[in-house]
Amino acid sequence: MIIYGNGEVLLEGNGQGFEMIYNGTIRITNSPDNLFLSADKTRIIGVMLDGSELPNKLFNYAGDLRVTYCGVANTDLLEKHRIITQGVDYWELDDENWEDDGSLWGTRDGTYLINGKQSYSRKNIVVNKNIKTQSEGQYQYKDGSPVPANELIHIHGNGTTMTGASHNKDSVQIYPPTFSREKKIALNKISRQIKRTKASTTPSSSGGGGGY
């Protein structure tokens, strides 16, 4: 079961990952360290980096969130979960006396709004904090030098990866390792040489043997 509202999304149940479809515009303000989140305008996907069970609190958010679907992954199965709201009851938030209110239920602006309206940003809708690099060279700096192992980094919603457990003025962008132009040229030369060597050592199929 998924429970959301009051600026938080909770899970009652077990699983190692989830997929959520939603309406609205939000910014995820906090999430557990081992839960890696990816999000866009309509979908949020989360997976536990260490393979453990999902926590009870999946994340906190600001903005207008209305969850329409959520599936939770157990092993290889994605099971649809029941969705319940909390703290967003229309009559609870209505300033008028309910008997004097002629509007339809749920039609008032802001019923689901938490901490003000948000502007959508693919980069900043979620920032995964306190992630450790698994090995030296898993990422590299702009000049090509490797980022050390066990370095704390953070990853933005659009995949931008930066130094520091959370974003700060000293954070710099880091990159997955890529081949330099010189390395590509060297690999191409080696590949051509291997092909030439194979061609020169392959026995010829002509000659020898009698005719018909």
CATH level 1 class label of the largest domain: Mainly Beta
Overall average pLDDT = 81
The name of the CATH topology of the largest domain is: Immunoglobulin-like
Globular, elongated, flat, extended or rod-shaped: what is the shape?
elongated
Q: How many independent structural domains?
A: 2
Number of helices: 2
The secondary-structure element order is: EEEEEEEEHEEEEEH
> What Rg is obtained from the alpha carbons, in whole angstroms?
27 Å
Structural class, by secondary structure, is mainly beta
CATH architecture of the largest domain: Sandwich
Task: Summarize the structure in words.
This protein has two helices and 13 strands. The protein has 212 residues and is mostly beta strands. It folds into two domains: 2-125, Immunoglobulin-like (Sandwich), CATH 2.60.40; 128-201, no CATH class. The strands form two sheets. Strands 1, 2, 3, 4, 5, 6, 7, 8 and 9 form a nine-stranded mixed beta sheet that branches. A four-stranded antiparallel beta sheet has the order 10-11-12-13, with no helix packed on it. A hairpin with a 4-residue loop joins strand 11 and strand 12 (161-163). The chain is elongated and about 75 Å long.
